[in-house]
Predict the 3D structure of the following.
Amino acid sequence: MMAPSGIFWLARHEMRLSWRDVMAMMTAGRRSREIGVLIFVLVAAIFLHFLAWTLAGPSGAEPRSRIDLLVFITALMVLPFSLMTSQAMESVTRIFYSRSDLDLVLSSPASARKLFAVRMGAIALSTTLLSLLLAAPLINVLVVTQSATWLAAYPVLISLGTVATAISLTLTMVLFAVIGARRTRLIAQITAALVGASFIIGIQLAAISSMGTLSRMAYLTSDNLKGSLPESIPCSGCPPAQ
Amino acid sequence: MQVNALEIRDLCKKFDRPAVDHLNLTVRAGEFYALLGPNGAGKTTSLRMVAGLLRPDAGSISVFGRDVLANPVEAKKTVAWVPDEPMIYDRLTPMEYLEFVAGLWGVQPAAAEKRATELLEWLKLAPHAHERCEGFSKGMRQKVALAGALVHDPELIILDEPLTGLDAASARLVKDVLLQRVSQGATVIMTTHILEVAERMAQRIGVISQGRLVAEGTLGELRKLAGKGEGTLEEVFLDIVSGPEGEARELDAA
């Protein structure tokens, strides 16, 4: 399983580097701050769940229908999807084309195929985590207050992360083939920024054209949008669709 | 018959212009070989192709009789490549780095740890073995990278400008380590702009210009070639590389 240069061994190496990078970023390089960071993350997680509870919990200002929640949670997933795609494109250019350890690894007899498979997995994981960070508190609250069927949102999120990574890989490789290695990073970053903004701009345009308002939230909760959605599957304990 | 450590035949690589142009080069097993040449002569490109990092447009490369293009994995098992700006992971300690590099070459963890400990002591890095590399000086980083090149016990060590930016003590240590490896049977190929180093350390010297090997031999042979009876390598080198374009003056036929 953990034979040197095997897929799990390479994955452990990547995870160790990523973990240390994240901790270094959060602690500004001071390892003594690690406990403080862990406490901060815990408090932030509790706060986000509290926020989700006020939105979707039983004590919310007004009871929300299942379809409302479905639209809301879908927006919470699709918003990060464009961000995920943009983040993944940046990761692909950095990890595949400019990471400085490529000389070391590619001059070794270790399998380049395994290495890149591990790195693609790492990109998918990191991009999915971004989406999970935003949506998980709401999903957890819905699981507790409504139904375990909301757990299905997790595999959906993971699928979105994987699809975003696949799209990013394809786009970046096409860029690499068309414009060459040197320009790929710059163009990929610009494309990533455009992709990242596309969802917000798209909703804004839809809100303006269909409702004449600048409010994205008004559009997301409008009858027009809800009417275009498929009927939700009934579930016990869920408020009825409005 | 002893197999050569490296045999390059008619090697070509073109980017915007030809970087390597029908290069032929042979390095014998157990030899310390210095590769010289002006900037842009094609030294690094050639060695990157030997290390399996670039694919040639034409030609063949074999390392200890193993075809680098047809069987890269087998060839890479015997080679260590140290680029001019070697990468070490800032977030790893030297010990972790060496264990990772050893693992890439399939060395089992117990053997890797033992070998890494020996190398770190040898390179005077033992007190820093468990500190992260992020605060290391250029010399310390270079020594960690060199240890990485040696940890899997390669038969052929290729170094691109390994002494650039090192202080005198570190440079001395690196040179001693390389000479010791050669005395133990390894083959070393090194590019350098420090001609004194090539003059003192290398058994044979090759000069590349415009992607071709334009001169090769011992220092004495190169002097004879350049018509500089007692000249320094610097004088000989400058004479050779300023000669007529593409004129190959290979001496070594032995």
About this structure: The radius of gyration of chain A is 21 Å. The CA atoms of residues 95 and 119 of chain A lie 7 Å apart. Chain A is about 75% helix and 0% strand. Chain A touches chain B at residues 4-5, 9, 13, 16-17, 20-21, 24, 29, 100-101, 103-110 (CB under 8 Å).
